[in-house]
Amino acid sequence: MNAMNTPSPLRFIRQDIQSMHAYAIQDSAGMVKLDAMENPFALPPDLQAALGERLGAVAINRYPGARIEELKEALARHVDLPAGCALMLGNGSDELISLLAMACDVPGASILAPLPGFVMYAMSAQLQGLAFHGVPLTTDFELDERAMLSAMREHRPAITYLAYPNNPTANLWDAAVIRRLIAEAATFGGLVVMDEAYQPFSSRSWLDEMRADPAANAHVLLMRTLSKFGLAGVRLGYMLGAEGLLNEVDKLRPPYNVSVLNAECALFALEHAEVFAQQAHEIREQRGVLVEALSRMAGVTPFPSDANMVLVRVPDAQRCFDGLKARGILVKNVSKMHPLLANCLRLTVGTPAENSQLISALQDAL
Q1: Fewer beta carbons within 10 Å, N or C terminal of the chain?
Q2: Within a 10 A sphere around the Cβ of 204, how many other Cβ atoms?
Q3: What would the pLDDT profile of 183-213 be if each residue is shown by its tens digit?
Q4: How far is CA 145 from the centre of its chain?
Q5: DSSP H helices in the chain
Q6: CA gyration radius for the chain?
Q7: Are both 141 and 198 inside the same structural domain?
Q8: What is d(CA 364, CA 320) in angstroms, rounded to the nearest whole number?
Q9: Whose CA is closest to 62, among 296, 299, 256?
Q10: Inter-residue contact 198 to 308 (CB < 8 Å)
Q11: Per-residue pLDDT at 1 exceeds 60
């Protein structure tokens, strides 16, 4: 058979995947990196040395074993896991989102989430062949309760995602509205996933609601990550919820999805949780400084934040983004993600020095 007649090796790659764009990561070499909601603080040198010794002693010639269970127990203590709940680990929250879509892939199932929101909710649905229903937020980025309830009644989604606080808008939604959406999902047996990726910077956690009223939250799963805690490079997410429910999802988890090095890093971080708590405290303080400076700039509107990022509307998002980049500052231009985000940039809260540079560069770029 000549080359002209040879079938393409892409013929069995799904057409919808071939028409997708891969997730883009901006080149940040030599830049002040404020585009990915990372904790800007490195480990202190003494802890770097101690961690190096710990990692050097890890048996990397063996598959992950009992140490993973020790990490789960440490996380359960760290969050004060409610009675009757179990906890599972993921390679970042992204893997947990994929596993949930896989677990709920029954005929006619769909996933629902407010928009703008985290892109992986829709992507996990698409990759698993599930319908995705996005419900726009209000113009001030609150949940549109009537539209959410209407969409839930029409589509009866297997999973409703509620990010608490939301990415990229950074705000916490009204708890009373969330309670009513959770109650609605219960009427048709749908799951609600509370995604608390930014919990270290938030004034509230849904875990308190789950403790206070376990019956009303029996179909709620709560997801967190150590990425914002300060371990973005370690790729460790975790999810907790009613034991019977979580155990079903856990059956889909690849047996060795968390590496021994990642687990050891996470255990080390939990042993030094006070260092990361202090970093989170400083980031929350810096967030206030940044918001105040932004609110004094003509034509600039910062939105309320309970995360380590600030969404800001500027006169011309692309011009500001380019101007900041030319001055060595990398932020995220979210203005094309959704019509509600017109002319918006998402700024990660950095160190005091980085935030000063950002404020000064933004004033110049404006």
Answers
A1: N
A2: 14
A3: 999 999 999 999 999 999 999 999 999 999 9
A4: 22
A5: 15-18, 45-56, 66-79, 92-103, 119-128, 145-155, 175-187, 206-212, 243-250, 260-271, 273-295, 317-326, 352-365
A6: 21
A7: yes
A8: 9
A9: 256
A10: yes
A11: no
Q: Are 110 and 131 in contact (CB under 8 A)?
A: yes
Tell me whether the omega of the peptide bond preceding residue 168 falls within 30 degrees of 0, making it cis. Answer: yes
Q: Which residues are registered as beta bridge partners of 135?
A: 114
**Percent of the chain clearing pLDDT 70 (strictly above):** 99
CA 277 to chain centre: 19
Same domain for 330 and 260, yes or no, is: no
Residue type, 269: A
Give the C-alpha separation, 98 to 279, whole Å: 30
Of 330, 219, 230, nearest in space to 280 by CA? 230
- In sequence order, what are the beta bridge partners of 161? 193
User: Measured between alpha carbons, how far is 280 from 308 in angstroms, rounded to an integer?
Assistant: 9
Is the separation of the CB atoms in 248 and 99 below 8 Å?
no
User: Is residue 167 domain-shared with residue 179, that is, in the same domain?
Assistant: yes
Q: Which two tokens stand for residue 323?
A: 């101007």
List the CATH number of the domain containing 131.
3.40.640.10
Sheet strand arrangement including 85-90: 85-90, 237-242, 220-225, 191-195, 159-163, 110-115, 131-136
Q: Which domain holds residue 264?
A: 60-271
Listed in sequence order, the residues at least 6 apart from 164 whose beta carbon sits closer than 8 Å to its beta carbon are 172, 173, 178, 194, 195, 196, 202, 204, 205, 206
**Burial 254-287, CB ≥16 within 10 A → b, else e:** eeebbbbebbbbbbbbbeeeeebeebbebbbebb
Does a structural domain hold residue 171?
A: yes
- How does DSSP assign 141-164, residue by residue? S---HHHHHHHHHHH--SEEEEES
122, two tokens: 């829709």
Do 349 and 355 form a contact (C-beta atoms < 8 A)? yes
Find out whether 191 and 221 touch, Cβ atoms under 8 Å. Answer: yes
Would residue 144 count as lying in a domain? yes
